Amino acid sequence: QVQLVESGGGLVQAGGSLRLSCAATGRAFSTYDMGWFRQAPGKEREFVAAITRTRTYYAESVKGRFTISRDNFKNTVYLQMNSLKPEDTAVYYCAAGRVQYDYWGQGTQVTVSS
Q: Is 57 exposed, middle or buried, given 0-12, 13-18 or 19+ CB atoms closer than 10 A?
């Protein structure tokens, strides 16, 4: 069983930066693939970024602006978000899994003002 807690969301002006953190409890954190997803009001949840043991993946809409990383000693995954745009406004969720994402956090709100 894995529990995930996101933090770091907030209100930022367009062009600004935020760093989201996702702290995981449970065993074998390093063996899980970790992902970030987001859901804007009235829209479906969408993939943002993911990190495995060896690779990272990004949605086209955030490539070059967002960076996902992990610290297996701290059981934490991060999402560094730069050059934020109003369209990045959403609730951001952290997820963990091996074959599929089985565990989800409660989400953290990111609001980007124009």
A: middle
